[in-house]
Amino acid sequence: MTLQVERVDEVVAALRTVLADDQILTSRADRLNRSRVPAPFPVHRWAERMPDLAVLPTSTEQVAGVLRIANDLRVPVVPRDGGTGLTDGAVPLRGGIVVDVKRMNQVKEIDLENRTATVGTGINMLKLNEQLAAHGLIYPDDPASYPCSLVGGRIGTSGWSLIGSRYGHTRDLVLSFDHVLPTGEVLHVGDGIGHKISKSSSGYQLKHLFMGHQGTLGIATEATLKLYPKPEAELSPFWAFDDYDAAYRCVGALARAGVATFAGAVLFDEWKVAYLRRDDEAYIPQPRDVRALVCAVLYGYEDEVRVGGKRLFRIARDHGARYLGDEISEGDWAARHDRYATPLHGRTKDGQVVPMSWHCEDAAVNYTRVPAVSRAWHEIVADLRRKTDVFDDWGMFAYTSADTGVDYLTEIDVGIWEQQLDDRAWGLWVRAKRDIAAAALAHDGSISACHGSCREGEVDLVPYELGRGFDVMLDVKRAVDPNNIMNPGKYLLDRAYPAEEAP
Amino acid sequence: MTQIDDPEQADDALAVPFTPGMRDNPAQLSEYVETIAGEPLPLADVTATPEQELAAEWRNAAYNCFSSGHKFCREVCPVTQVTRNESWTPTAFHANVVAMEQGQLSVADVAADYVNCTQCGACELRCPNTLFTGDFYRFRTRTVDVVKAVRALAVDQGVHQEGWRTWNARTDQLTHEPVLGDTPVSQEHVRDWSAGLDLPIGGPTVLFVDCEAAFYRTSVPRAVAQVLQLAGVEFGLMGEQWCCGGPAAEMGYVEQARRFARHNLDSWRSTGTTRVLVLDPHDYISFTEDYPRYFGEEYADIEVVLVVELLAELLREGRLTPSVPVERTITYHDPCRLNKRKGIWREPREVLRAIPGLTFHDVDRVTQWSYCSGGGGGLPIEKPELTEQIAAGRVDKAAALGVDTLVSACPWSERPLAGAGEAVGIDVVDIHELLALSLGIDVGGTTNGGAP
Q: FAD-binding PCMH-type domain spans which residues (chain A) (predicted)?
């Protein structure tokens, strides 16, 4: 659904009162390139996801101006940061204005005494850390998309970090931020009103409400972040196991050990190892009895990492682990952002190479339920493959979310042959996604630990997951966004409005 | 309501992990009936458009990027870093090909977007597809070639960028690029830089001097020629040198590029030349990538030698011994076409480390993937303001190291970098000039297109 040409002209004319001409993009290519993210995407229906225009604001005031205009004119607004999300928060469903914040990428302040940085939300974490390195500091928010995702997107999706078991996740690392409401008003959200307060008990805790909303409640524009000393030492052992059960028992023991420098552990299941044997130089030569892997990572000062590492090695050995050596351990961890999902690893069942896109379905699952959820998910993908080679099973990871080992980000990686996508294939996929979410819920998990749950298929189950909480979501949405202009169509939030008022 | 209980576990070949393509996989894997995938989906229209013909050639390359969606290329792209415009990213350049295949875009819709690329190659290296399937499949993402192909299609369809059209028309007229300087650009003056050096014409080995160095920064070829003379390397100048044709190829003027290449090859043949010394990284790309594509076997006996590699060899062999201390605090700018496109980064450092007196604050080559002068791919002709911003960013990185001099090995980078350097008090010097200085050579020539 897009605007009529005359309406676009009207919107552009209004936007020119707050933006320069080169900040308003209306060409077809500008719009096509802001209508997709790496999340599962019906590429054969690309044009249906196009916005009517995109804007590139450079300040909170400009974002506020754009939202005021959109609210007055009742035009949908979709915020876009890195556009690297694995749910489709940044994909417009009803046309409108994409607010692309990439130009708001300045470092406003580095406070060495209080250990904070204040940045525009369009900055990338790697680029920020290049600047922080000069001060021996780090902002340890480390998603798979670390080299390209932006701080604002991390806030909008309430992101998950690979090393969150030691440093916390985005919600813990972002102390406060400026947030533009759908009406164009600006508020500051944090703990209390403070910019650099890590714990307040004053009033409602609004920070969490304005994180992870997938752009349905407004746009974060400037954030104050918690900084840590850049770790002196990193230890990232990879261990091999004869079978999944042994690896599973080991990862649980490692996570429960309570080692202070423990930053996370990852379990690779048998499907993942089979996937890596397709063409991974590290794993093809491994003997056949290597069927599952565990990696753990520790960060800190050298003396504390050394001692903590010894303890974890002892635990691993007691669980039948075989250390894969320094080269694989250091190399694989260093390459963690690049290594595991490339289109060229796509295969038909009989081994033909076809370019496939990577789709990662995640859930938050308790340790005790990980094996059951894994079995259920592989069966769902196997069922897709019984019908067609459009889908491929790239195996599963389970990552610790917390320092106690209570729950895991459980993900199944699915290759999709996008060149062959049509409505039938897309329909199968949407159903599979719903089944994947349902399996996580059936095992007392949450639909997503990391990406969000607003995509076609899984989103149907959000009201079941949240129960009465979903009604509260509707009430909040209506109160904050009276005209449903922010990212309409996402999270079933249209239900907050009488049918005729939805734009 | 969808299923909530565990699905029943099936008992077939797909219920257990396997690696597709292994010899001992169960036969059952080939017995499933395919219900969806077939041949690649037909193009949107049976009478293919020129855009769809391009897409037919590049569709798999484009999907390899489109499907990946990682976008790790973005923060290393020099243009993206300064414009922060997602339409001008390596990802968009591939995605547009998919959109053209679908009939969503015409080349006229996107031609101007493809201006925003210096063809530095950073995106190709940073691509996870290159990094993690490169060794195994000998695979490399080919953004630069995609950009060149779309630019060529635009020209072919009569969609011109005004600055490029004029530039190439004037190049065609002058047989050299119309670089601005006091020396008039013309065939009569292409050897003016060598005044007083007494260089022969032709012979088995010639020194090819790019347009910027021949007419604007003449100190570079003068330094190269005199250092080579000092080392006893025998070489001449070309009988009739034209522009290498590379810039035309980069901007999409394919026919002109080939015509210029033909002329140069014919000229080498007429002087019995089989060995070409190249001081400019852009020429080096033309001679090692474009010319072999144009001429195939006919070109097989031409040896192309990059001067900075030759100099490193001469230093190693003791045929050059720099002894005059050069008291400067420097850092080195890895030219994109050497470091990112050709993997050449050791030899320039070898040369610099041989120069006495230098304090060298080096920045590793991988960090420099995200550095660029903004001088390549025709960007300065169409968008000088972007070149200026990119160069300023590069010089700022040097300034943060506390150096007084930024050394480059690419004449085309030196003009934008020198402009940016002036603002922060950083001198931009060519590596060949610096080496000549430490060999006691009075280089002469000009570094800014002015009178020597």
A: 47-230
Q: Where are chain A's structural domains?
A: 5-100, 107-229, 233-459
Judged by a CB distance cut-off of 8 A, whether residue A38 touches chain B is yes
B56 at the A interface (CB within 8 A)?
A: no
- The whole-number average pLDDT for the span B11-38 is 89
Residue of A nearest to B75 (CA): A148
Phi/psi of residue A100, each to 5°? -95, 115
The Cα A230–Cα A214 span in angstroms is 30
Best-predicted range by mean pLDDT among A81-90, A228-237, A415-424? A228-237
So what CATH class is A5-100?
A: alpha beta
CB contact under 8 A, A389 and B69: no
Q: Name the pTM for this structure.
A: 0.95
Chain A residues 116-175 within an 8 A CB cutoff of chain B: 122, 124, 126-127, 145, 147-148
Query: In chain A, positions 82-121, which contact chain B (CB-CB < 8 Å)?
Result: 82-84, 100, 102-103, 105
Among residues of chain B, what percentage have pLDDT more than 90? 83
Q: Are A53 and A73 in contact (CB under 8 A)?
A: no
Q: How many CA atoms are closer than 13 Å to the CA of A154, on its beta-carbon side?
A: 34
* pLDDT band, residue B3 (cuts 50/70/90): very low
Record: contact B68-A342, CB cut-off 8 A: yes
Q: Where in the sequence of chain B do the CATH 3.40.50.1860 domains occur? A: 321-438
Class of B321-438 in CATH? alpha beta
Q: In the sheet that B329-332 helps form, which strands lie side by side, from edge to edge?
A: B359-360, B329-332, B405-408, B427-430
Check CB contact under 8 Å for A344 and B92.
no
Least confidently predicted of A163-172, A246-255, A264-273, A413-422: A413-422
Q: Would you state the CATH architecture of domain B183-314?
A: 3-Layer(aba) Sandwich (3.40)
Q: Are residues B72 and A337, on separate chains, in Cβ contact within 8 Å?
A: yes
Query: How many residues in total does chain B contain?
Result: 452
- Quick: pLDDT tens for A89-128: 999 999 999 999 999 999 999 999 999 999 999 999 999 9
For residue B126, list chain A residues with Cβ-Cβ distance below 8 A: 147
Instruction: Indicate the CATH number for domain A107-229.
Output: 3.30.465.10
Give the mean pLDDT of A242-271: 98
Place domain A233-459 in its CATH homologous superfamily. Answer: FAD-linked oxidase, cap domain/gating helix (3.40.462.40)
The reply to whether B92 touches chain A by the CB within 8 Å rule is: yes
Flag whether residue B321 sits within 8 Å of chain A, measured between CB atoms.
Answer: no
Domains A5-100 and A107-229 share a fold: no
Q: Which chain A residue has its CA at the smallest distance from B66's CA?
A: A357
**pLDDT at B71 > cutoff 60:** yes
- First and final CA of chain B: distance in angstroms? 83
pLDDT in tens, A275-300: 999 878 788 889 999 999 999 999 99
Which of A22, A32, A46, A447 should one mutate to test binding to chain B, selecting the residue with the greatest count of B CBs within 10 A? A32
Is the CB of A331 inside 8 Å of chain B's CB atoms? no
Mean pLDDT for the stretch of residues B357-364: 98
Best mutation target, A24, A33, A105, A451, to test chain B (most B CBs within 10 A):
A33
Q: Is the pLDDT of residue A397 over 50?
A: yes
Mean pLDDT of A377-402: 97
DSSP string, B263-322: HHHHHHHHTT--EEEE--HHHHHIIIIIHHHHHGGGGTT-EEEEHHHHHHHHHHTTS---
* Average pLDDT of the residues in A380-409: 97
Contact A337 B60 (CB under 8 A): no
- Tokens standing for A378? 């592989």
- What is the distance between the alpha carbons of residues B412 and B383, in angstroms, rounded to a whole number? 15
Q: Is B280 on the interface with A (CB under 8 A)?
A: no
Output the CA–CA distances (angstroms, integers) from residue A59 to A70, A129, A131, B245, in the order listed.
Answer: 17, 22, 21, 44
